[in-house]
Amino acid sequence: MATPGIEQLFDLQRLPKDGFLLLLLLLYAPVGLCLMLLRLFIGVHVFLVSCALPDSLVRRFVVRVMCSVMGVFVKQNDPSLRDKNVKVYVCNHVTQFDHNVINLLTSCNTPMLDVSPGFVCWARGFMEFGLTSSRSERADSLKQYCSVEGSLPLLLYPEEETTNGKTGLLKFSSWPFSVSDSVQPVALSVKRPFIPANVEESSWILELLWTLFIPFTVYQVRWLPTVSRQDGDSSQEFGNKVQELLAVKLGVVSTQITRADKAEHLKRKRHIAPRTINSNQSLGARPRTISLGFMASNSMMEDMRISGMVQQVKEVLPHVPLGVIKRDLVQTNCVDTTITNLLEGAEEINSGSSGGSSVAAIQTSSLNAIGATASAPALKPAAESFGRSTADRHMSLQDRKEALYEYARRRYIEKHGLNQQTHNTQ
After folding, report:
1. Superkingdom of this entry's organism (predicted)?
2. In whole angstroms, what is the distance from residue 39 CA to residue 255 CA?
């Protein structure tokens, strides 16, 4: 199975891309809102029952039934494989409520790592665990907890971050496998209609509301046989073996993508989106009034937008082939940047004519056309002589670029019937 790219491991958009599914979701919305309000009321009672009853088989059964009313269904395969003597369960991480689901099947504790303990930590069902300065200290503290007689098993997530659970697993960290020499893998998969089970960078409160809004969410828990460390295996080698077992059970790929790689990927996504939106407000681009996510999901509208930008560049540089303009616009997504790239000779143009033509010829032809059609004072299409210094050549290029920009602005104003004076003041 081919290794998936990092963008395939996470869901960044909640609404479905398919138009038919989106229509169904909109039609379902009034029903979903009523369900969400009703389930919020039931959820308060679930919380109170969980707090009032002691941890036992009776409480787990009652809470599981109430969760089913709330649309959260939990199924498990081969419950006889669950090892009652093991001290550590390791599970792939899909949603922010995975530990609550496992707790409906068996008693276990999930430490809240890297977060200060408090009421919210306790109310969400996490074991309060103090902040530690290193992973080794964290592992030592958990190892000491497991050595206490009668302590509940630990549920740990070696991935340390959530994925969509559809294509691959993040690389397992080594520290959970230094806590105990025997662990039991737990394969978790989540399915729900219309929307993904988890969207990255979404708060747990918002995820809870969507869970109550959607008709149902099905958690499938599969217990795997206990795995023990072999002699000579390091913690990382032990973790790699468990990762492969879980990947095979889930039908996904075991990747080398880490938690840090995910954080860097999401950081780039946050910076690229605002920059793309700002570039669309550049010269000749009409501001879009709908979200970037919806535009990206609709390929037809995206092609129309690119075609419009190609025509805007073509008006300024009429001798540049459309294919070359479109190829550069797909990369830059900005009319201004594409014009600059073509003027500065970022790409050689092979138009198919005898001998071909270069960017320099395109610049000269375009400027001659500007001088023939513009009502502004005559433009200087090229330098009178080749500059002897880099500064002279740069100034000549700047003059030509500014002339082209001014011509493009006038063409845009004339085309859309805007008032020149008002446009300049803006």
Report:
1. Eukaryota
2. 38
| Token pair for 270 | 């946050």
Among positive and negative, which fits the CA dihedral 46, 156, 223, 209? positive
The reported pTM is 0.64
The CA angle 81-87-91, to the nearest 5 degrees, is: 65
Strands 88-91 and 182-191: parallel
DSSP state of 181: S
C-alpha to C-alpha distance for 138 and 22, rounded to whole angstroms = 44
Strand 227-228 to strand 182-191: parallel, antiparallel, or no bridges (unpaired)? antiparallel
Handedness of CA 265, 268, 274, 277 (dihedral sign): negative
In the structure encoding, which two tokens stand for residue 405, read together? 């920009």
Per-residue pLDDT tens over the stretch 180-221 = 999 999 999 999 999 999 999 899 999 999 999 999 999 999
pLDDT 10s digits, 384-405: 444 555 555 555 666 767 777 7
- Could you tell me the two tokens for 220? 């499938």
d(CA 286, CA 271): 22
What are φ and ψ of residue 109, in 5° steps?
A: -120, 135
Q: 264: which 2 tokens?
A: 């860097």
Please give the Cα distance from 19 to 25 (Å, whole number): 10
Cα 383 to chain centroid distance, Å, stands at 49
Residue at token pair 């190829």: 327
Residue with tokens 């922010």: 96
Q: How many CB atoms lie within 10 A of CB 65?
A: 11
